[in-house]
C-alpha cells in the first residue's frame, strides 16, 4: 500500500483593503507636539489610513477576504482564520461574523491573537489544518483597526499605527509546488509581555477590584527595548527559516518584514545582508497596520509587480507577547486586483 503524499498549504489567492481615510503627518502636527521631520526620521512614515466612525475590524476583514477569494477564483473555504488584536467585541470571536458575511456559514471560524505576528501564527495554524486533513482550503485574514486602541494624544504611538487588512487563500497541495508554505519558525517570551500591551479590558482588570483607569485602556509600548528585541528575534527567526528551507540568504529574492518601523526594517535587513532592491516596504504610506502588515504588503507589492512568480520570499514578524516568527515560500502565479 502506497502512503499518501504529504499535504502542504499552498498560496492560491491574496487580497488587501485599507479604509479610505488617509491621514498625513501634516494633519497630525495640528494636534500633536511633533513635526513631519520628527515622524519621518524616527519611523519612516509619511501617511497612514485610519477607520472612520462606526467602522470595525470585521468590516476591514470582509473587504480583504472578498478580494482574496476573487484572486483565488473561488467563493468557498472550509475554514476562516482571523488574526487580530482588535476584535469587534471581547466575546464572541470576530471570525464567525466575518465568515457569515462572506457567505461561509457553517464553516470553522476562529480568531488568532499574536499582535503584529498574528499573520504568521495564523499561517502556521491554517497550514496545520490543511496538513492534518481538517480542511482543503482556508481563508486566512489579518485585520486590525489599531487606531481604536491608540491614545490619540500620545505622539509616540499615534504617529506609527494605522488600520488595514490583508487576506490569503490557502489550498491543499504538494510541498514542492510554487506557493507552498515553507518551514515555520515561531517563538515567544511572555516574561517580557509588558513591553507591548493594553493593560486594561481583560480579566486581570475586571477581577482586580481597582478602578479601570488605573490599568489603562490604551496600547503602550516600551520603544527602545522593543526595538532591540524586534531586531534580534526577526533576524534569528529569518536565519533559521532559510536554513530549514535549504536556502542561503543570498538566494532570497524578496524580503518582507512586518512594517513596524523603518529603522527596525533597515537594521534587520542589514544584519541579514539583504540589499535594498530585494526589500519590500510600504511603511511610508501605510504605517504599522499590526497583524495586517505582512499580507497587506505582499498584496500591494504583487499588484505593483515587485513580487513575481518564482521569487523566493522570506517573511518575518515581531509583536507583543512577545511573539515572533518567520517562514519562506516560492511566490506562485496569482491574479491580483
TrEMBL record:
GO terms for biological process: fatty acid biosynthetic process; secondary metabolite biosynthetic process. The keyword Lipid metabolism applies. Pathway: Lipid metabolism; fatty acid biosynthesis. Keywords: Acyltransferase, Cytoplasm, Fatty acid biosynthesis, Fatty acid metabolism, Lipid biosynthesis, Lipid metabolism, Multifunctional enzyme, Transferase. Residues 245-331 form the Beta-ketoacyl-[acyl-carrier-protein] synthase III C-terminal domain. GO terms for cellular component: cytoplasm. Its EC number is 2.3.1.180. SUPFAM superfamilies: Thiolase-like. Residues 259-263 are annotated as: ACP-binding. InterPro entries: ACP_syn_III_C, ACP_syn_III_N, FabH, Thiolase-like. Homodimer. The last Arg residue of the ACP-binding site is essential for the weak association between ACP/AcpP and FabH. Catalyzes the condensation reaction of fatty acid synthesis by the addition to an acyl acceptor of two carbons from malonyl-ACP. Catalyzes the first condensation reaction which initiates fatty acid synthesis and may therefore play a role in governing the total rate of fatty acid production. Possesses both acetoacetyl-ACP synthase and acetyl transacylase activities. Its substrate specificity determines the biosynthesis of branched-chain and/or straight-chain of fatty acids. This is Beta-ketoacyl-[acyl-carrier-protein] synthase III. It comes from Streptantibioticus silvisoli. The lineage of its organism: Bacteria, Bacillati, Actinomycetota, Actinomycetes, Kitasatosporales.
Amino acid at each position: 500500500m502506497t502512503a499518501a503524499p504529504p499535504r502542504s498549504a499552498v498560496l492560491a489567492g491574496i487580497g488587501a483593503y485599507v479604509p479610505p481615510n488617509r491621514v498625513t503627518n501634516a494633519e497630525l502636527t495640528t494636534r500633536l507636539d511633533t513635526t513631519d521631520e520628527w515622524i519621518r526620521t524616527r519611523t519612516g512614515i509619511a501617511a497612514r489610513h485610519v477607520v472612520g466612525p462606526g467602522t470595525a475590524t470585521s468590516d476591514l476583514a470582509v473587504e480583504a477576504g472578498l478580494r482574496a477569494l476573487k484572486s483565488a477564483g473561488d467563493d468557498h473555504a472550509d475554514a476562516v482564520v482571523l488574526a487580530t488584536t482588535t476584535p469587534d467585541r471581547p466575546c464572541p470571536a470576530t471570525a464567525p461574523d466575518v465568515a457569515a458575511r462572506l457567505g461561509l456559514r457553517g464553516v470553522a471560524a476562529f480568531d488568532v491573537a499574536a499582535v503584529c505576528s498574528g499573520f504568521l501564527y495564523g499561517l502556521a495554524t491554517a497550514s496545520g489544518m490543511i496538513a492534518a486533513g481538517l480542511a482543503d482550503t482556508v481563508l486566512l485574514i489579518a485585520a486590525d483597526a489599531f487606531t481604536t486602541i491608540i491614545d490619540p494624544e500620545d505622539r509616540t504611538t499615534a504617529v506609527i499605527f494605522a488600520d488595514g487588512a490583508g487576506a490569503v487563500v490557502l489550498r491543499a497541495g504538494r510541498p514542492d509546488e510554487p506557493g507552498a508554505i515553507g518551514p515555520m519558525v515561531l517563538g515567544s517570551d511572555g516574561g517580557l509581555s509588558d513591553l507591548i500591551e493594553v493593560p486594561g479590558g481583560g480579566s486581570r482588570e475586571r477581577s482586580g477590584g481597582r478602578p479601570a483607569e488605573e490599568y489603562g485602556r490604551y496600547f503602550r509600548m516600551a520603544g527602545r527595548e522593543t526595538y532591540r528585541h524586534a531586531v534580534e528575534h526577526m533576524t534569528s527567526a529569518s536565519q533559521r527559516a532559510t536554513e530549514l528551507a535549504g536556502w542561503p540568504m543570498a538566494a532570497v529574492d524578496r524580503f518582507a518584514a512586518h512594517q513596524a518601523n523603518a529603522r527596525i526594517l533597515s537594521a534587520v535587513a542589514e544584519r541579514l545582508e539583504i540589499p535594498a532592491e530585494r526589500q519590500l516596504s510600504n511603511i511610508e504610506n501605510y504605517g504599522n497596520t499590526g497583524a495586517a502588515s505582512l499580507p497587506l504588503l505582499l498584496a500591494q507589492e504583487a499588484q505593483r509587480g515587485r513580487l513575481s512568480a518564482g521569487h523566493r520570499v522570506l517573511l518575518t514578524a515581531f509583536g507583543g507577547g512577545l511573539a515572533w516568527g518567520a517562514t519562506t515560500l516560492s511566490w506562485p502565479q496569482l491574479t491580483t486586483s
